[in-house]
Write the C-alpha cells for this entry.
Amino acid sequence: MNSYATYVLIALSVLIGTMITLPAFASTIKQEPCPDCGEDFNYEDAQMMRLSDVPIRVWTDRTIYEYGSNIHIQGVVASLKGMPVTVKVTGPQGNVVGIQQLEVASDGTFEITFNTGGSLWKQNGIYTIRAQYGPQEINDKKTIELVGGVTAQTTTCGGGEITVRSTTDAYCVPFDAIGVTVTKATVSSTDFSIVLMVGAKSDGTLTLMIPRNVLDSQTKSADSPFIVLVDGEEGDAFEVGSDSTTRTLEIEIPEGSTKVEIIGTWAIPEFGAMAAIILAIAIVSIIAVSARTRLSILPRY
C-alpha cells in the first residue's frame, strides 16, 4: 500500500473514533441550570424567585366545563403568612356563585372543587375565579367557560308586562304606557330601586303595578311613599292603588325624558344566603389579618 493510501486510512480512523467518543464524553458533563449562579442554585429556587413577583397563582384543570360538572381549582402562594386563601367565583353578570376559605398547605399549595350544578350556576358564559391571600391587592384570577346550562334569562313576560332584571333573575311587572316606551328595566337591592330607561317623544304617563316582593317602601310596617326621579329630578307620581301583594304607581313622563328611578326602602335580595356567607368570610378575614399584623380597630389609651 502506498503512503498516500495509508494517510487516508489513518485520517478516516481518527474521524470515526472522534464521532464515537464525543457523544459519550459529552454525556458525562453535568449541565448546570445557571452556570453563573453558584453550586447551590437549582430550578426549584428559580421557580420560587419567579413566583415572588406574583405572590399567588391559581389555575384549573380545564378551561371549559359542562353544567353539573366539577371544577378542580389549584393554586400556590409564594410565602406562608399563617392565614387562609379566599377563593371566590363570579358569574357572567358579576353575581357571586361560590366562595370558600382554604387553609394553605406547608408547601404553599391549596386546592378546592366546586360543582357547577344548582341555580347559581345555571347560566352559560364566562365565570371568573379569583384567589386572594391577605390584602385585596394580593390576588390572582382565572376565567373558565360554562356550557350546557341556560342562556341568559329564560323568563318571558306576557303582553302588558315589562321584564325587570336583577343580576340573577327576572320579574314580570304589569304596566301601561301612554306616549312612552320602556327599553330596559332593572332592580337593585343595593339602592332599593327600580330603574327604567324610557323614550318619550311627547308628554306621557307610565303606570306600574309593582310587586311588593320586588320593591316596596315602608316605615314602621306601614306603607310610605316611593321617591320617583325623572332624569335625576323629582317627578310627579301618584299611588293610585295598593293591596297586600302590589302597589300601583302612575308617573308623569315629560317629553324627552330618558330615565325613571323608583326608590323604596326594600328590594328583593340578589344573593340571598350567599350574601351572608360572603359577610362571614369577610369578618373572618379581617380577624385573621388583624391577628397577624397586630392591627387594632380600637383606640389604645
